[in-house]
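[Q] Does anyone have a clean structure-token version of this?
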Amino acid sequence: MNHLEELLELAKLEEGNKNKVLILGEIRPEMATFLSEQSGISLNNYKFSVDVYAIRHIIKNHSQSEIETPKGQIAITDEDFELIIDILENPDLVFYDGKNKLGKDVFQFQKLIENKYVVIKEVRTGKKQLALNSMRIIKKNRHN
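[A] Here you go.
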């Protein structure tokens, strides 16, 4: 079991406010420059991260077929979390996407893997992290 699988299991097992963060790796300098040019936010020496809270949010809000299907989306499964690193390191499209509900700057990473995977990362300036905020899968159709 790798570290991401362990974090996923921890998110499913433990309740309450205990959080655990997993650093996925450093943002490549060319990616940091590209994102900084789009947003005006310096991302030098930032790292990609995932935490228990984000995984719980995704499981709670994006893993039920009966909710996702009417929206043209596919429910997230445990296996989909394993794709996050590839989506972040090799996106088909990445862009600054404004602010989330908490007022944090966010970037959207997209990759077509049969369907369109969308990973939202929020900027955590104090920790120098681009942290997982949300994830969804948009069902491929003739328009995307």
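[Q] Thanks! Anything notable?
[A] The CA atoms of residues 19 and 53 lie 6 Å apart.
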